[in-house]
From TrEMBL:
Coiled-coil boundaries: none
Family from the record: Belongs to the glycosyltransferase 43 family.
Pfam families given in the database record: Glyco_transf_43
Binding residues annotated for Mn(2+), in chain numbering: 191
Gene Ontology CC annotation, any one: Golgi membrane
Keywords, ordered alphabetically: Disulfide bond, Glycoprotein, Golgi apparatus, Manganese, Membrane, Metal-binding, Signal-anchor, Transferase, Transmembrane, Transmembrane helix
Residues the record lists as binding UDP-alpha-D-glucuronate: 87-89, 118, 161, 166, 189-191, 303-305
Gene behind the chain: B3GAT3
Required cofactor names: Mn(2+)
Residue intervals passing through the bilayer: 12-29
Identification of the protein by name: Galactosylgalactosylxylosylprotein 3-beta-glucuronosyltransferase
GO biological process, alphabetically ordered: carbohydrate metabolic process; chondroitin sulfate proteoglycan biosynthetic process
Length: 330
């Protein structure tokens, strides 16, 4: 009996010993084995993403609250609006010019783009471009009278360009803005090159502010000459005896001054080179001009002109039956 019990107990110990050894060996084999962690890492990356989302939501809310300002501080006065007037007309490079200009203007705070097409109707090209631009804008049109319009092959200086378009913008401002509106009006042709710094120079114009213009009048720059903070003359080679020998891109006019002088406008009949003078003579004297851009020593706008593209190969493609593809937006 006791012998039998002893045997059984021995078996139980043996079994226990074997199971323990097997368990130990299994545990040792698992050490250093790669484990299937994808589920685990997916769960933790979900956690990180949702935390990122929360952070960016809170950052957005913080920005909105900061923009609203501290209610205990007085609100910052709004910047005077820069009404940028651009005459424009249909030609191959128009969309390229307006794209470049609109993307410059996007960087300027408190700006209103007044685009005036030289055409009897507003074109869909300009309408669409303006809609997509992200800018505050007004879209107008008026066609230059036929006798004053440049004809194919005419040299560009033969007739003034963009005159009635700029005048229509002045009319729109007079009809849609009043004495309480702060602002400045700048005539920005669609093909020039503008530094962003220029817009901050003109922002607080009292009457008419002026600065140099690069690559114009056959010289590297033209500029007002300044002595003791006052304009005393002009550095220009071409027709220096003009009343205001300045390019359109070289001055800005305060909105209140334009509203106070309802007859001031550009004259279609102005002599060559005197278009700027035809407006400015009705507004200021030379002594009243406000020099900007470090006393007119910095060029911040260039009278660049875009070469007319030669479409020499279009006819050859047409002859081959490869007329331009109407599904391509140019
Ligand atoms: N312009 C216009 N109609 C025309 C020719 C020009 O509205 O028939 C516009 C043009 O888009 C530009 C401005 O008038 O914004 C001045 O024209 P351009 O750049 O040809 O003149 P320039 O550089 O020779 O002074
Ligand atoms: Mn030009």
């Amino acid at each position: 009996m006791t012998m039998k019990m002893k045997l059984k107990l021995k078996n139980v110990f043996m079994l226990y010993f074997l199971v323990s050894v097997c368990g130990l060996m299994y545990a040792l084999m698992q050490l250093g084995q790669p484990c299937d962690c994808t589920l685990h890492s997916r769960q933790s990356s979900d956690l990180v993403h949702s935390r990122d989302r929360t952070i960016s939501r809170l950052q957005g809310e913080l920005k909105r609250l900061q923009a609203r300002g501290n209610p205990e501080e007085p609100p910052k006065p709004a910047l005077p609006t820069i009404y940028t007037v651009t005459p424009t007309y249909t030609r191959l490079v128009q969309k390229a010019e307006l794209t470049r200009l609109s993307q410059t203007l996007l960087h300027v705070p408190s700006l209103h783009w007044v685009v005036v097409e030289d055409s009897p109707v507003k074109t869909s090209l300009v309408s669409e471009l303006l809609k997509r631009s992200g800018l505050r804008y007004t879209h107008l049109c008026t066609q230059t009278p036929k006798d004053f319009k440049l004809q194919e092959g005419d040299p560009n200086w033969l007739k003034p360009r963009g005159v009635e378009q700029r005048n229509l913008a002045l009319q729109w401002l007079r009809e849609n803005r009043g004495p309480s509106d702060e602002g400045v009006v700048y005539f920005a042709d669609d093909d020039n090159t503008y530094s962003l710094r220029l817009f901050e120079e003109m922002r607080f114009t009292k009457r008419v502010s002026v600065w140099p213009v690069g690559l114009v009048g056959g010289v590297r720059f033209e500029r007002p000459l300044v002595e003791r903070g006052q304009v005393t003359g002009f550095y220009t080679a071409w027709k220096p005896n003009r009343p205001f020998p300045m390019d359109m891109a070289g001055f800005a006019v305060s909105l209140p001054l334009l509203l106070a002088n309802p007859a001031a406008r550009f004259h279609l009949s102005a002599q060559r080179g005197n278009l700027e003078s035809s407006l400015l003579q009705a507004l200021v004297s030379i002594e009243e001009l406000e020099p900007r851009a470090s006393n007119c020593t910095k060029v911040l706008v260039w009278h660049t002109r875009t070469e007319k593209p030669k479409m020499k190969q279009e006819d050859a493609l047409l002859l081959k039956g490869l007329g331009s593809d109407p599904s391509v937006e140019v």
